[in-house]
Amino acid sequence: MKEKEIAFIGKITAGVTHEVNNVLASIREISGLLSDILSITSAESFPRKEKFQTSIQKIQNQEKRGVKLISRLNKFAHLPDVSSTEIDLNELIEHLIFLTERFGRIKNIELHTQPAGQSVKVITNPFDLQMALFNCIEYFLKNLDAGGKVFINPNNNKDEIFINIFAEGDFINISQLFDDSIAEELIVLGEITKSLNVVTEYDSSKLSIKLTLPIKK
């Protein structure tokens, strides 16, 4: 039932994103038409022409930003479509950072991805893996002081594929760092990683969480 509920939410979200794209397309066409009309008018016949041009440019910039946001949301909505598939960790993490950076801005904490030098591909459940990474981000956002930074770095070698999530900055309560018996985000993280057969390691000295993914041939 849980999988059906997630799929339902994803399907509705994907449908709505398509409709919002239609709205943005209309805004793009109307603003373009207004811009064309202004281009053939003189400053004398339209005293506030420059102000209108500036306003139209702002509308067009926001339309482009909206298209990008909706495109990423649509991609996220389709994650539950498959329970297991091959993904590129660099792309998955870059996508997640884009969707979650607002949560960091609210707390004045920067979110960054440090992509591997080459493609890091793994077969896993993309929705569950993003949820696991999001819980790591939420944990750091909740416990870092303003001005901190969070980094996500995927990597691999001959023996393992792993993701390091680490922080820079001051923690609110360093004595309880990575206490997964009381932190809801870490409890949820443990449940997800168990279902994914992912090994979780905490390192207080490096302020990091390491997720080691199983290699499937």
Quaternary organisation of the protein chains: single chain
Q: What overall form do the CA principal axes indicate?
A: elongated
Approximate helicity band:
40-55%
Q: Would you identify the regions where 5 or more consecutive residues have pLDDT less than 50? A: none
Distance between the termini: 30 Å
Number of helices: 5
N-to-C SSE series?
HHEHEEHEEHEE
Main sheet, how many strands, which sense, barrel?
A: 5 strands, mixed
Rg, Å, rounded:
22 Å
Structure description:
The protein is α+β, with helices and mostly antiparallel strands. The protein folds into two domains: 2-80; 82-213, Histidine kinase-like ATPase, C-terminal domain (Heat Shock Protein 90, 2-Layer Sandwich), CATH 3.30.565. It is built from five helices and seven strands; from the N terminus they run ααβαββαββαββ. Helix 4 (126-143) runs antiparallel to helix 5 (184-196). The mean pLDDT is 90.
